[in-house]
Amino acid sequence: MAAPASVSPSPAVIVLAVGGLYVAQSVIGGVTWAGLPAVLRERGLALGNVGLLSLIALPWGLKFLWAPVIERFRLPPVGRDRSGEIVMWGGGLSVLGLAVVGFWGPVSLGPVLACLTVVALATATVDIACDGYAVESLPRAQHGWANAAQVGGAYLGSAIGGGLFLVLVAGLGWAPAVWALAVLLVLLGVPFLLRWRATAIATHRPHTPSLAAALRRPDIRRGVLACALYVLAHKTAMMMVGPFLIDAGFDLATVGLVNGAGTLFVGLAAALAGGALVRVCGARAVLVSALGLQAAAFFFFAARHLYPAIPASALIAVAVAGSSGIMALGFVALYAQFMHWSDPRQGGIDFTLFQSTDALVSMVGGVVSGYAAQHLGYGVFFAGAGLLAAAAIPAIALICRPGAGGGVEALYQDRSAAFLPSGESR
């Protein structure tokens, strides 16, 4: 029996509806991971305190704990999909939290950290529903569209939160810049809510989503290990790139343009290229290549710190390539693996386990990287990061080898049985 129309929307609808939510979530992430660290460093905060911003990622690391509750609420045994309700409540709390942050200056680190953590809790909950909706709505052959929405939306949001936000802070001040982002979040959530209200129908779902069901599957355990290794080697040291550029003599507006324009153009282009390369070469080859390129970028940062005579233009170019292009290239492949390993009947739980691993490793790595850069110096820090990325290459190649794990294909072949119109059976 064919799945309901609401379960198989066109790829264009997914890009518009789900992509808007990914952009909104990444706006907040861009502020946290790129924008705010540069603002705080410009205003004299120690690198160790800048690294504490990684603690805001704690809800993203722990969201697997409440993902089963959210997924069972979102997908009741009989009834309408409740994704839109989760998005409305979580999005509203995020907007309110940003509005409050606008009243505090960035030097009020404690209150800002507390409020942004609440915002992260709300957006992490929305992301559970968003990921589950994407996994269940698209057949495996169309996962590339979801990856484009996820990674492309993430880089567009990061460009806004880490780039445009800094330009607004430099030109208008803290409060107007934060409030402008809050208004933007509202606009980005509208397409998803309109589509959800128009297409959600009552459905019978025989499978009960659970964390235990996810952990029993070898694909999930393999994916968690791959995610932890990849994020540790590829991502955690990137939080220090903004402070590194500030200490290298660049002003806040320049760093904002690097984060924004580089992410917007280079990141989006690399995301599209990554999607094409995954289809041609496979996710494993793209992941390995991205790690090699990122290791080279880290080694360059170390060399630039030790030899300041290297032109500033070269530093900017590598910073853009490392933080935008290479990152996008690798994470398109990683997200493709996530979707491949996820069960469409409980995608919000399975995908959340991978993202929680990403967030926990990023959080711990970010805190450690701040103190490491402060006490070891940028040269030693980035050289060590380069060695770590290079060492992770054979491990990722082994974990993501073709045919490893398997077993998810049958879930996609039988996906129509998991989402039957209310009152019908197989």
Automatic annotation (TrEMBL):
Coiled-coil regions, chain positions: none
Listed transmembrane segments: 12-34, 46-66, 86-105, 111-130, 151-171, 177-196, 224-246, 252-278, 285-303, 309-336, 378-400
Keyword Membrane: yes
Keywords: Membrane, Transmembrane, Transmembrane helix, Transport
Record membrane topology: Multi-pass membrane protein
Pfam families from the UniProt entry: Acatn (PF13000)
Subcellular location: Membrane
Database matches in PANTHER family: MAJOR FACILITATOR SUPERFAMILY DOMAIN-CONTAINING PROTEIN 3, SOLUTE CARRIER FAMILY 33 ACETYL-COA TRANSPORTER -RELATED
Name of the protein in question: MFS transporter
Lineage, top ranks: Bacteria, Pseudomonadati, Pseudomonadota, Alphaproteobacteria, Hyphomicrobiales
